[in-house]
UniProtKB/TrEMBL annotation:
<dbReference type="InterPro" id="IPR007627">
    <property type="entry name" value="RNA_pol_sigma70_r2"/>
</dbReference>
<dbReference type="InterPro" id="IPR046531">
    <property type="entry name" value="DUF6596"/>
</dbReference>
<feature type="domain" description="RNA polymerase sigma-70 region 2">
    <location>
        <begin position="19"/>
        <end position="81"/>
    </location>
</feature>
<dbReference type="InterPro" id="IPR013324">
    <property type="entry name" value="RNA_pol_sigma_r3/r4-like"/>
</dbReference>
<dbReference type="GO" id="GO:0016987">
    <property type="term" value="F:sigma factor activity"/>
</dbReference>
<dbReference type="InterPro" id="IPR014284">
    <property type="entry name" value="RNA_pol_sigma-70_dom"/>
</dbReference>
<feature type="domain" description="RNA polymerase sigma factor 70 region 4 type 2">
    <location>
        <begin position="116"/>
        <end position="167"/>
    </location>
</feature>
<dbReference type="InterPro" id="IPR013325">
    <property type="entry name" value="RNA_pol_sigma_r2"/>
</dbReference>
<dbReference type="Pfam" id="PF04542">
    <property type="entry name" value="Sigma70_r2"/>
</dbReference>
<dbReference type="InterPro" id="IPR013249">
    <property type="entry name" value="RNA_pol_sigma70_r4_t2"/>
</dbReference>
<protein>
    <submittedName>
        <fullName>RNA polymerase sigma factor</fullName>
    </submittedName>
</protein>
<dbReference type="GO" id="GO:0006352">
    <property type="term" value="P:DNA-templated transcription initiation"/>
</dbReference>
<dbReference type="InterPro" id="IPR036388">
    <property type="entry name" value="WH-like_DNA-bd_sf"/>
</dbReference>
<feature type="domain" description="DUF6596">
    <location>
        <begin position="185"/>
        <end position="285"/>
    </location>
</feature>
<dbReference type="Pfam" id="PF20239">
    <property type="entry name" value="DUF6596"/>
</dbReference>
<dbReference type="GO" id="GO:0003677">
    <property type="term" value="F:DNA binding"/>
</dbReference>
<dbReference type="Pfam" id="PF08281">
    <property type="entry name" value="Sigma70_r4_2"/>
</dbReference>
Amino acid sequence: MNTSAAHRTIDAIWRIESPKLIAGLARMVRDVGTAEDMAQDALVIALERWPVTGIPDNPGAWLMATAKRRAIDLLRRNKRRDQKYEEIGRGSELYSELDLESAMDGEIGDDLLRLIFTTCHPVLSREARVALTLRLLGGLTTDEIAHAFLVAESTVAQRIVRAKRTLSAEQVPFELPAGEEMINRLSSVLEVIYLMFNEGYTATAGGNWIRPLLCQEALRLGRILAEIAPSEPEVHGMVALMEIQSSRFKTRVSQTGEPVLLMDQNRALWDHLLIRRGLAALERARRLGRPLGPYALQAAIAACHAQALTASDTDWARIAALYEALAQTAPSPIVELNRAVAISMAFGPEFGLRLVDELVSEPSMKEYHLLPSVRGDLLLKVGRITEAQGEFEHAASLTRNARERELLLRRAAECAAAANGENKI
């Protein structure tokens, strides 16, 4: 394997293994920034050695062992320091060798949840909590996080640096909170897990339309969280949403990797076990007797799609009503864009186009590629083919996912061909 190919492979491995690595190290050293530094040290060693020696059979275990040795060295240095400066501690062992050797042997799932709740601590701003956790647990780059939040990359980078400094300065404990404190942090935790899932469901950049492993990790964390907080309807709502959306994975890309849009998917191939699990989680959220929150409402929308045997059977009027409720509960331009699509499907493209046109001047949507993509689709349906072509081309210029760009350019080319055909006539 040449060096370039090895580095690409190592980068893919790092995206998968880094959250578990950082979480395990954070439990040992009790500092998120230090844990990330040690994990990065292990990555640097891998980048130096693996192109020469080859990728290990178990690269995750290799990285963990390498980082673990560095963490143990740090703990030993700290132990010697404490023994020197704390007279009272001279007669006892602050750490036993068994402690040091077994410090990484806990449940990885618990470690990941501890890391999420640590990085979602109230001492951080909401934006900083989400950015830091996505960076550490999702393995997302600052560029990908910036795209998810529609902000500048430099802004995200500053948030992450400041967040790590704050956690260290405030000595935030690496633990799962209990009672009211857990409830207070849930909204940020749910947002982080779902953004992780969403990045896997539709990748921000790169050559793949989806990143299934990222979705699987987010779903696993969501299921664990549902066991920890069973009386919180939004936890079940988020799990329901991820279960139902995960059911479509086999049909979201063609055999050659091209995206397949929802209305074109073979619903017979959807995973009906995941759909049943999602519907059951949604029912658990409803049985708790509180108004449905944003995740449960989105799960109800996903359930409408899952329960329609064919695309033409979809209850778009109900979906439009659910998006209206979602817009009241969690208003945002993206929710309004989705509501416009539902209204266009239920009542005609002209109605949807009016709503979409109102979003064109929204500053936060300026770089959001799905706005011109949706507008192009609606323009095409009302017969404004040349305008539709321009919107698809604009959308293609905004997306950083290669597969999505190909799809949009293909739609633009189809518009051009249709326009030329009309001109000939």
